[in-house]
């Protein structure tokens, strides 16, 4: 069989293989198109909302600069940390948004059976420098 003919038949073979997927895999494919896809969209929107809520990082003291663990790793703990100024951020709205984001991430990980190294992230140290919250470069 020529290489061109194989390349032309490959999509048809792949599609026919999909129709013979066992029921458990078929459910996952349906979820990826439905609920999991919606979770992905919702998670992205919540993450963007947290970014907007924390955009203004102006400060006058180090105490106004804080970090918040956001999301969830499969073995527990946050996926990352978000720097914000308590002087400029609606902390109640940030907490509510992060709680929703974390729940979505946990459900995604559970449905997809995701695992991680279970290594916990260390929170970075925030500080106010030149009236802006920044993360200090530390080797802890």
Strand content: 5-15%
Tell me how many strands there are.
4
User: Which ranges are low-confidence, i.e. pLDDT below 50, for 5 or more consecutive residues?
Assistant: 1-31
Strand order of the largest sheet: 1-2
Rg, nearest Å: 22 Å
Number of H/I helices? 4
Summing up helix and strand content along with how strands pair, one would put the structural category as: alpha+beta
What portion of residues is helical?
40-55%
Tell me the overall shape.
Answer: globular
Order of helices and strands: HHHEEHEE
The description of the largest β-sheet is: 2 strands, antiparallel
Report mean pLDDT, rounded to a whole number. 79
Signal peptide: 1-19
Keywords: Signal
């Amino acid at each position: 069989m020529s290489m061109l003919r194989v390349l032309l038949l490959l999509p048809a073979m792949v599609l026919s293989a999909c129709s013979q997927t066992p029921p458990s895999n078929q459910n996952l494919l349906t979820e990826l198109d439905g609920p999991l896809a919606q979770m992905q969209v919702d998670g992205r929107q919540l993450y963007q909302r947290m970014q907007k809520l924390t955009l203004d990082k102006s400060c006058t003291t180090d105490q106004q600069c804080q970090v918040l663990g956001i999301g969830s790793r499969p073995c527990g703990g946050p996926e990352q940390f978000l720097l914000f100024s308590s002087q400029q951020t609606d902390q109640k709205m940030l907490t509510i948004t992060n709680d929703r984001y974390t729940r979505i991430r946990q459900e995604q990980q559970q449905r997809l059976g995701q695992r991680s190294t279970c290594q916990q992230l260390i929170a970075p140290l925030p500080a106010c420098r030149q009236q802006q919250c920044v993360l200090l470069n530390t080797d802890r």
